[in-house]
C-alpha cells in the first residue's frame, strides 16, 4: 500500500504552480477552443497566474476585414483571466504570419495607416487591462538581419519604431515587448535583436521588454540563456520567457530538468519578470507529437510539472 502511494506521487504536484510564483509570474498560452475539456479549463485557472491568448488576439482574429473588429474570443479570454485573477500578455499586434488577406494587399502609407489603426483599436479595447503586449513579433532572420515582410516593404525598418509609438499612445500603462524565437542563447539572431533594442532605446522609442519564446527540444536549452537574458536586461528592458515548450517524447527526465533550468535562469536575472508555457496539456499543443508540455493528454502532471513547481519555490 505504501509503495502504491509513493508511486502515485511520482509526477504529481503538491499544489499549484501559481502558489509558488512569488518572484516571477507563471503563465500559459490558453485558447477557448479547448474549454469544452473541463480538465484543461480547470488547469488553466488553477495552475497559472498569467495568460496569453494562443491565437485570439492575432491580426486575423481581431480584424478579419478592414475596420471590422471581432473581439468575441479575445473578450472571453480576458474575462476568464479576470475571473481567475490572472494577468494577460497580449499577443500579437504586428507579425508576418496570420495577416488577413485584406491587409496583405495593402502597401506603403495605406499599410502604415492600417497598422496604426489596428494597434489603436485592439489596444484601446483592452486599455488598462493588459499587463504587456507583444507589439512586434518574429521580425528577425536567423543571421540577425531583418526579415523581409509586408512591413519592411512598406516602411523599411521604421515600422518597428512606428508600431511602438502607436502602442504607447494606445495604452500608456501596458509594457511593450518585442518577441522572437531562436534568440535564447547568444548567437547572430539574438545579437541582431540586441543591437536593435539598443538603437531603439537610444532613439527614445518606447520599448519596455524583450520576449524570448523558448521553443526547445529536450537537451537543447542554451547554456548561456541566463547570460543572454542578463545582457538584454542590462540595456534597461524587462525580459520574459514567453512561449516555453520542450519537445521530449520518451525523454521525460531530461525534459523536466530543462523546464527547471529555464525557470532558474529567469529567477537568476532580476529583470526577468516571468515564464509563460506555450500550452498546458500535450494533446492540445501545436507540436503535440513531441509531448512538450507539463501535463499529459489526460491532464496528469508529468515529471516536468514537478520540476516546475520545485524550481519556482
Ligand atoms: O481555427 C481554425 C479552424 O477553424 C480550422 O478548422 C483549422 C483547420 O486547420 O484551423 C484552425 O486555425 C488554426 C489555429 O492554430 C487554431 O487551431 C490555424 O490553422 C493554425 O495555423 C493555428 O496555429 C497556431 C500558429 O501559432 C499560427 O498562428 C498555433 O495554434 C499557435 O500555437 C502558434 O503559436 C505561435 C505563436 O503565435 C508565435 N510563435 C510561434 C508559436 C508556435 O508556432
Automatic annotation (TrEMBL):
SUPFAM superfamilies for this protein: (Trans)glycosidases
GO molecular function list: endo-1,4-beta-xylanase activity
Catalytic activity as recorded in UniProt: Endohydrolysis of (1->4)-beta-D-xylosidic linkages in xylans
Record keywords, A-Z: Carbohydrate metabolism, Glycosidase, Hydrolase, Polysaccharide degradation, Signal, Xylan degradation
Domain called GH10: residue spans: 7-311
TM spans (from-to): none
Signal sequence interval, chain numbering: 1-15
EC number: 3.2.1.8
Name of one Pfam family that matches: Glyco_hydro_10
Active-site residues from the entry: 243
Top-level enzyme category: hydrolase
GO biological process: xylan catabolic process
Family that this chain belongs to: Belongs to the glycosyl hydrolase 10 (cellulase F) family.
Protein name per Swiss-Prot or TrEMBL: endo-1,4-beta-xylanase
Species assigned in the record: Aromia moschata
Amino acid at each position: 500500500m505504501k509503495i502504491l502511494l509513493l508511486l502515485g506521487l511520482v509526477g504529481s504536484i503538491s499544489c499549484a504552480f501559481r502558489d509558488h510564483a512569488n518572484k516571477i509570474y507563471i503563465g500559459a498560452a490558453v485558447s477557448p477552443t479547448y474549454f469544452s475539456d473541463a480538465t484543461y479549463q480547470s488547469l488553466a485557472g488553477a495552475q497559472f497566474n498569467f495568460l496569453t491568448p494562443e491565437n485570439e488576439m492575432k491580426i486575423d482574429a481581431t480584424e478579419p476585414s478592414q475596420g471590422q473588429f471581432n473581439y468575441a474570443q479575445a473578450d472571453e479570454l480576458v474575462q476568464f483571466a479576470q475571473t481567475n485573477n490572472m494577468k494577460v500578455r497580449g499577443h500579437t499586434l504586428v507579425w508576418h504570419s496570420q495577416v488577413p488577406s485584406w491587409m496583405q494587399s495593402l502597401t506603403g502609407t495605406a499599410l502604415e495607416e492600417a497598422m496604426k489603426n489596428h494597434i489603436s483599436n485592439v489596444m484601446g479595447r483592452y486599455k488598462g487591462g493588459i499587463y504587456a503586449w507583444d507589439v512586434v513579433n518574429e521580425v528577425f532572420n536567423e543571421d540577425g538581419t531583418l526579415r523581409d515582410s509586408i512591413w519592411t516593404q512598406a516602411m523599411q525598418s521604421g515600422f518597428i519604431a512606428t508600431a511602438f509609438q502607436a502602442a504607447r499612445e494606445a495604452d500608456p500603462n501596458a509594457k511593450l515587448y518585442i518577441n522572437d524565437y531562436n534568440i535564447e542563447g547568444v548567437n547572430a539572431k539574438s545579437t541582431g535583436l540586441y543591437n536593435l533594442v539598443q538603437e531603439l532605446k537610444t532613439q527614445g522609442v518606447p520599448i519596455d521588454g524583450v520576449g524570448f519564446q523558448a521553443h526547445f527540444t529536450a537537451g537543447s536549452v542554451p547554456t548561456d540563456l541566463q547570460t543572454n537574458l542578463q545582457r538584454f536586461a542590462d540595456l534597461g528592458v524587462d525580459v520574459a520567457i514567453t512561449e516555453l515548450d520542450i519537445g521530449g517524447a520518451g525523454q521525460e527526465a531530461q525534459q523536466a530538468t530543462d523546464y527547471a533550468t529555464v525557470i532558474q535562469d529567469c529567477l537568476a536575472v532580476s529583470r526577468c519578470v516571468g515564464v509563460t508555457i506555450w500550452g498546458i496539456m500535450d494533446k492540445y499543443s501545436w507540436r503535440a507529437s513531441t509531448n512538450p508540455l507539463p501535463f499529459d493528454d489526460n491532464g496528469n502532471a508529468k515529471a516536468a510539472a514537478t520540476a516546475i513547481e520545485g524550481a519556482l519555490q
